[in-house]
Amino acid sequence: MPPVADLVLFALALAAAGVVSGLLAGIFGIGGGAILVPVFYQVFGYLDVPEAVRMHLSVGTSIAIIVPTSLRSFTAHRQRGAVDTGLLKSWIVALPAGAILASVIAAMISSVGLRLVFVAVALLVALRMLFNRDHWRVGDHLPTGLANQAAGVVIGTLSGLMGIGGGVLNNTYMTAFGRPIHQAVATSSGVGVLISIPGIFGYIWAGWGLAGLPPFSTGFINWAAVALIIPIALVVTPWGVRLAHALSKRQLEVGFGVFLIFVSIRFLVSIYA
């Protein structure tokens, strides 16, 4: 067991991550998982959580935290009238289905595999955001019908595997079809709600009864970390919403891209160091 002083230090680190998570939830419409997953991975490693379950526990715990932060962010953005509620209603089955599929895959994939999925998707999205040009648009209107449902399932699945609320992928998806980044960010907060709620149950099931999980864990969710971070993130999220509406489209895109590259590099280091 680590010394008490070290545990206090890591508790403070998690608290700081809660502040960043809340800001990200408001600014980018994401649940903050892109920063929480690597933080959890390091903390759980220090607490001697086995490598075989460490990344899974990090992703599952992040998913649990996304529920209240996404709800908080969604409420704040909806009050500003920026959410595309029609798109969210069309994905009310597709996004949860993707989240459940992600938990099934997580039950079978290795820790390295989960980290590589995280890195690959994050880098692709970052490059698109950093070098975005209007003529890179896939189209001027979002798909409908089966194509729209397929997009929802893919976003739900990849987000569930990354431990994020779907904002990373939904922002890219909506802007690729000409939607304003501010509307994409606002709608992404609702996407996070539809992914994270079924994701909690999926990650509990995927890790149920496995050896090596730390105290206060149910499956791949550690409730001690959840309880520490959620109150902080809920307080901070509205600040991020106000900041998001004060920034320009290009400032949001560049900030989002740089952030994703930083996180990707951190995970590559964890794999190959």
Q: How are strands sequenced across the largest beta sheet?
A: 1-2
Shape: globular
State the low-pLDDT regions, or none: none
Instruction: Give the proportion of residues in helices.
Output: over 70%
Distance between the termini: 25 Å
Can you give a write-up of this model?
The protein has one domain (4-272). 52% of the residues are buried. It is globular, with a radius of gyration of 17 Å. The mean pLDDT is 84. It has a two-stranded antiparallel ribbon with strand order 1-2. It contains eleven helices and two strands. A hairpin with a 2-residue loop joins β1 and β2. It is mainly α. It starts with a helix and ends with a helix. The longest helix is centred in the first third of the chain and has 29 residues, at 51-79. α1 (4-28) packs across α9 and α5 packs across α9.
What would you say about this model in short?
The protein has 273 residues and is mostly helical. The protein has eleven helices and two strands; from the N terminus they run αααααααααββαα.
Which structural traits does this protein have?
globular; transmembrane helix; Probable membrane transporter protein; mainly alpha; transmembrane; 77% helix; 273 residues
Helix and strand arrangement:
Blueprint: H1 4-28, H2 33-46, H3 51-79, H4 85-90, H5 94-106, H6 111-130, H7 145-162, H8 167-176, H9 181-207, E1 217-218, E2 221-222, H10 223-246, H11 249-272
Antiparallel strand pairs: 1-2
Helix pairs in contact: 1-2, 1-3, 1-9, 1-10, 2-3, 3-6, 3-9, 3-10, 5-7, 5-9, 6-11, 7-8, 8-9
Keywords: Cell membrane, Membrane, Transmembrane, Transmembrane helix
Family: Belongs to the 4-toluene sulfonate uptake permease (TSUP) (TC 2.A.102) family.
Subcellular location: Cell membrane; Membrane
